[in-house]
Amino acid sequence: MVTTLFGPEHDALREVVRRWVERDAGAHAAEWEQARAWPREALTAIGAQGWLGTVAAESHGGDPIAAVAMWEELGRLRSAGVVHDLLAQAHASAILAEVGADAAIVDSALAGTHAVTIIGGPFTVTATDHPHQVTVSGQRKAVPNAAWADAAIIVTRAATDGSAGPQMVYVPANGEGWSAPKVSQPYGRRAGQVGDLTLDNAQATVLARGETVTAVMGPQHTRWRLNHAAATVAAAWRTWEDAKDYALQREAFGRPIATFQVNRHALADMAADLTAARSLVHDTLHRYVNGTLTAGETAALRLYVDRVTLAAANRCLQLHGGFGYTMEYDVQRAWRDAAHLRNDEGGREHLSHEVVGALESARG
Hints:
The chain is α+β, with helices and mostly antiparallel strands. It folds into three domains: 8-110, Acyl-CoA dehydrogenase/oxidase, N-terminal domain (Butyryl-Coa Dehydrogenase, subunit A, domain 1), CATH 1.10.540; 116-209, Butyryl-CoA Dehydrogenase, subunit A, domain 2, CATH 2.40.110.10; 214-363, Up-down Bundle (Butyryl-CoA Dehydrogenase, subunit A, domain 3), CATH 1.20.140.10. Helices cover 53% and strands 15% of the residues. It has eleven helices and nine strands. It has helices at residues 8-25, 29-35, 40-49, 64-74, 80-98, 103-110, 211-249, 261-290, 297-319, 331-341, 347-363, and strands spanning 116-120, 124-127, 133-143, 151-156, 167-172, 178-179, 195-209, 251-252, 255-256. A hairpin with a 2-residue loop joins strand 8 and strand 9. Helix 5 packs antiparallel against helix 6, helix 5 runs antiparallel to helix 7 and helix 7 packs parallel to helix 9 (297-319). The longest helix has 39 residues, at 211-249. The two termini are 38 Å apart. The relative contact order is 0.11.
């Protein structure tokens, strides 16, 4: 697809990431899925490349266009669990840098030697005698990167310790009150280091409060959705390519099933939908870079991409017939991942409410 967004430097980045996906990680993706875990060495290998820093604000060395180009390649890894962990690591690292966290922690997070996750939700923050120290209690299930995390960044929508506005705290995993066992029977994202995080009066350090939290998390949330959508669409294209190849070699009545009109039309319809989804990602990125993005548009992006990619995974599964449900073919993994990832950010209902709310506000 031709677009004016990406220049030679972005194409060069794509090539490097693609080689890593196809040659290094790609050789182990099926093994990681079977083991339901991926190794820390792979995270540090990515950190050593400097890729995690692309998602940061431009003032901190990030490049939103390069980030989307990178996630479009990483999304083809055939393991949404690994990709989602990497998204959490990259964005948590960027947030640490943007709020001015300790430089050693920021550097190690970007290098992948310090695993960090980022969580928002109903956590209770309680003040202590020290102005920058608090305790945190709460629970979230299926948190990416949590099972091996060295720390978590917790973002609350409103302060619960008597201070004004939202706040952001840093909770180290080696303190009391931290529990993040790996999800034992994951439905999707099987290779990911997904954990059910419970904090029980865990000691934490305040990173930011009030308007500072809003100023950092607003743009970061937008970039998260852009990168997530880019990776999700890329994964769906990979599944489409696999389904096309299968349909070309699988025969029925003496000829490939790809020659039957119903299957040709199914492949064409999926390709059209995925092309539109990728175009929407690029258009949303273009408006973000130009400062013309309006409220609700990234929620609409996620809503559309989630619907299209799950529909494509469903149709690719059907093209495989009964074989699609066996572990022999990757399409079963792609379908489970697509169904599971749409629950990110509260799922369809939350995104729909955000889109409608933005439209109502725009009409005044």
